[in-house]
Amino acid sequence: MHRPLFFMAIVLLMLGCSPDNGASNAPQSAAPWVRTLVVSNASSAFLKLSGTVKGRYETPVAFQVSGRILERYVDAGQRVEAGQLLFQLDPRDLLASVRVAEADMKTTEAALAIARSELNRQQTLVDGQFVSRQTLERYELTLREAISRHQAANAVLEQARNAVDYAELRAEKAGILNAVTAEPGQVVIMGQALATLIDDSSLEAEVYLPEGEDAPASGSLLIDGESLAITLREMAASADPDSRSWRARYRIESRSDALSLGSVVQVRLDQPLQETTFSVPLGALDERSQGAQVWQVVEGQVQPVPVEVLELSQEYARIRASLTQGSRIVALGTHLLTPGMQVREQAR
């Protein structure tokens, strides 16, 4: 009576001890956790750059004649007034040229007087019918040539006298001298820049815009807690060959005692966002490949998305990318990711 029950219990015990086919498979490693964030449109409507205070007019200072510098009366960084003497050349050769020109002038004056006297004498002979009219015309031509030579000699003498005046180089306007390179005893040629005269009555901010950015028409300059309005005056026609940035000059509309030539200031330019851009933390940028990219999380997998970096700050970057409002990207640890990798999200 108990034997069938006994055999049934043994069969059940053997089935319970047999290995489970589902449990025999090796457990898969769990997907790593990543910190993600939801991207949002960049809220900043400004482009922040570093600029340098420059003068509106920066004129190279040079002699109009060649010679040896006899004296230098100014130093770099010195403020000068209009008409102030800056440099002086040795005038000996220039004075000798004046004496030569004066001698030529006297020669032409004598030749002119002789030509006029001879013409008058020939005119008398023609009136008395002692010589022909053709002879008189010859002497009239000689007088015209003497007048032309006298005028040329007079011009040469005027140039020589002007050259003596040019031996003294004076400031054409008030300003500050920069990059003074000339020294007494140095021989310079006509037009060689010896210094730069900066007109500090009209100041500007010089900035370099990233490639692809249009120059905003206005903005502000921040210095020592002050905000000074600036207006675009000039934009370079081509990019700098080394940095590939574009130089722009902004006119500073008001003055401040804190402004000084050459000082570095913060410039904030009004930059309306013409297309969707995003603000992301610097840790979200990955530059392992040929360009910058971020990693977007789609259905538990990460995929790289190329981006264009428009602006960098201490913590965030403003980018342009093929993302939509609300897209989720990895905020940290992007250097460990591979395309299609399974991840678990930890929202930031």
Automatic annotation (TrEMBL):
Keywords recorded for this protein, A-Z: Signal
**Name this protein carries in UniProt:** RND transporter
Entry's Gene Ontology molecular function annotations? efflux transmembrane transporter activity
- Signal as a keyword of this entry, yes or no, is yes
- What protein family does this chain belong to? Belongs to the membrane fusion protein (MFP) (TC 8.A.1) family.
SUPFAM superfamilies given in the database record:
HlyD-like secretion proteins
Signal peptide per UniProt: 1-23
Q: Enumerate the spans annotated as Multidrug resistance protein MdtA-like alpha-helical hairpin domain.
A: 100-167
The record's listing under Pfam families reads: BSH_RND, HH_MFP_RND
Domain Multidrug resistance protein MdtA-like barrel-sandwich hybrid, by residue range, is 61-96
Keyword check for Transit peptide: no
Q: Cellular component terms, GO, for this chain's entry? A: efflux pump complex
Biological classification of the source: Bacteria, Pseudomonadati, Pseudomonadota, Gammaproteobacteria, Oceanospirillales
